[in-house]
Every structure is written in structure tokens, then in C-alpha cells.
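Hey team,

Filing this mostly as a record. A colleague (T.K.) asked me to run one chain through the structure pipeline before their review meeting, and I want the input and output archived in the tracker in case anyone asks later how it was produced. No errors, nothing strange. Just documentation.

Input sequence:
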Amino acid sequence: MPSHGTLDALIRDIWHYTHHVSDIFPDDTNKTVLLTAGAVVNTFGAWAPVVDNLAAEFSTVFAAADGHITAISIEDCSLTDERYELEVSYGAARVVVARSRFMKILNKLNVNHKVMIRSIHIPAGETVYYRLKAETALGTAEVHFRYYLV
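Output structure:
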């Protein structure tokens, strides 16, 4: 059973997790994050750092503080009516903090599908990576991340 001090800390953590303001990466409308699937059908590509179109790394938001990913919004996909699978990780060991499966469906959901994530802490100073696979080789997905710092 946790000690009284530990229980108080857990309650504070839970409160903060459920009551916070999330930030967005990339942080402006002229910035995008384009994720690319592997070159082999239904096979993850190599792990790659998450970067925006201006070469800013998502990792920079976690440079000085631990944080969590709270959501990934899928803004567009190059493939229609085909499935994608995404993994997000951090560090040299590629500790997976998020997994998602999504697709762009022409007659139902065209864009901006939001995937809720309840990630574990991403420690300060760690690089954030992704890998993607799709039913067609080299499919792409344009996304943005919602996160908060602890």
C-alpha cells in the first residue's frame, strides 16, 4: 500500500493529468508534420524523429521538462480507404508511448480524425520518434500532436 505522501503525489498527478491545457506541435498554421510509411507494404518504416516542415523537432518541447502526448490529430492522408498504423516512441531504446490505427474514408471521415492518447511520461531531453506502416508503400499522413508538460 502506498504511503500517505506517495498517495498525495499520485492524486496530484491524476488531477494534473485530467485538468490541464494542452499545447500543439507544430505550433502555427504554416507548419505541418508529414509522417511517411515504410517502403514495403504493411511493414513499418525505420524509426525517425518527429519533425515539422521547417525542420523543428517535436523533441524540443520536452527539452527541459517531462511531458505526455494527449492526442494525435490526423489532418490528411495520401491514401483513401486504406489503413495506417502508427507508433510513437522516445529514446535510444524506442520506448513506445502511443499506438494508433486510422484510415481516411472518402464518404465518412475526410480529415481531422483525433486519436486520444494517454501516454506515459516522455522524460526531459529524450528524442521523440515515429514509425508508420500502410496498406500501400510510402503512404503519408499529415498530423499534429497535442501534449502537455509536467
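Quick notes for T.K.: Residues 4-18 form the longest helix (15 residues). The longest strand covers residues 67-77.
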